[in-house]
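Exercise 3.2. Students should predict the tertiary structure of the chain below and write it as structure tokens, then compare their answer with the key that follows.

Predict this chain's 3D structure.
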Amino acid sequence: MSETEHPREKPPIDAPIKSSADDDLGRSPVAHDFVESIRELDASEGLVVGVLGPWGHGKSSFINLMREQFEQEPKLAVVDFNPWMFSGSNQLVNFFFTEIGAELNVKNKSKFGQAADWLAKYASILKPVSQFVPVPGASIVGEAAAAALGGLADTTNADRSAKKVRDQITKELRALAEPIVVVIDDIDRLTTPEIREIFKLVRLTASFPNIVYVLAFDRARVEQALTEDGVPGRAYLEKIVQLSFDVPQAPEVLLRSQVFNELNRVLTPVADVELDEDRWGDAYFEIIDPLLSNMRDVTRYAISSKATIKSLGAEIDLVDLLAMEAARVFRPDLMQRLTQLRTELTKTRGYSSGKDDEAQKAIDALLKDFPDDALLIRALFNRLFPVALQYVENSTYGSDWLGTWRTAHRMAHADYLNLYFDRVAPDTLVAFRSTEGAFAVLDDAEALKALLSELDPDQLDTVLEGLTSYEAKFTTEMIVPAATTLLNLIDKIPEKKHAGMFELNRPDLTVGRVVLRLLRNVQDEADREALVAEIMAGIETYSSQLDFIHSMGHREGSGHKLVSETFDQQLQDEFVSRLQASPPAEPEREWDAWRIYDAVRDATGESPLTAASDPVLVRSVLRSAKSTARSQSMGSRKVRTEDRLAWELVVGLFGSEDEVKQAVAEVREKIGDDDILRLADKYLEGWRPER
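Answer key:
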């Protein structure tokens, strides 16, 4: 497949702009005016111009904008000298004049040919004596050494004295109609000795006529490098640079627009990404904006965060992701520390519980170790990790917030913070992705059933539990298809294996919590009753029907009174009548078989089952009457289990133990032996639990 079919995305590049066409900050007019002010100065004895500004302020871009104006008539020749190409004074002096001469020849041999030749000769003469170029800061010694330079050079080559060659260069340069511009950029990126070498060179050659040096550097950095033996670098600098211009910092509005342009470019290939506008403004101005001071910062931010945004932009809340990426790029030490504080950033506590002393110490140490970033840390807590505010102010976020943060993909939830730091989704987050898929089709029963049927059964309980986090987003259109589908799924959900001592691992409780949250958003009781009736008509098992009736009605300990007592009684009466008239079509699916027949016994006062009942149904009754008792010794993590039957209830359904014994024998004969029948045998033989 060709690149024209799938064109490659152009990445943001941390490079200076080339022309006014790329000038998003509107500096072109200023740069052009500065060139005109240079043209107005007398360069007959040479001229040194400084373009000043901190690293990243756009000095190189500003010089490129100046080039455009140098190209205008009367056109000036611009020669670039790269100081990074030399090492030491000897090579510097030789290389400088050789390079300038070569560049002039290339630009216009007929115009600069003679001057270029003489510059090359001068380079070879000065090479062996360049070590005598004066040291910045020692002005008196420097002047003396400069005065002696011609004499030393004369003794180097009798036929070509330095003075003679210099005079000839001066003559050729003075004859030029327009000056030559020599640009030396990135001086502030050099080492201190290299910076000194550059200014030695400029001082040595600054008096050549019609040579305009344009030097780009950070004033503070260069002044520091030139300071020596008590002589301030600024004084030395002022002696050399005759005209300077401080590149202005990009206006905040323009800089901000560039941030948004770069972020839009980075986000273009990321599908299904949304920005929480309610949170974005505060997070941007309190976290991201203070970390960006120039266009290089903007570009660096875009380049460095691109891979993370492309990888996680559709997974994690975009506001959190952009804010954390800014901290990672510009405050890497702080970010490294935050990776060690995941629990402190995400662990909620009860409204009545006290603070965690160890966590408090960890947060206090963070603020102590990063005093300059105190405002940034506070902003991160405030906008991204509200749980951590409990350690810096009197605020509390309980566990009820976890669902909100998880549905919003916020890093305030540990799953998403771990995903960001580790780039590997934890198991609970993998399950929650399926939850999100289920939520998207809650209003479509067939689609929801298909989606849930494709999942690993062991994941179903976790996936459905996650739906409770979406309560605030449930709609009326979701109620009937979602509730019906989930209630019909209960018998397909396996109980959790290896449950802990206090773990509630019943699938009906998980489904019930979701169904309850769907219905309780309907305020009118009559509307709720109509929806309940519609759901009842679609429930496939008697077990789920009865569970739904108990949950919606007035049953003590389980009813939520979402329907009237009259309607509740009507539902129960109709249920009993249906079950008496028509036994379960799929008795193996009756996950609460003992209870449905216990409802019949309560209503009629008679035992509804006999030894002649469907063997599959009898086995389902016994299985549903089984429970597992758990116990755990003090100081031990091992949980002991013991299977039990609700024996008195089982006997009540059949009328007597003899009837149960015959029923068990019928099941064993017709469909085979199993664990539940053997457990029933123990009870028939007289065994009972100790407690």
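Discussion points: The radius of gyration is 42 Å. The first strand starts at residue 47 and ends at 52.
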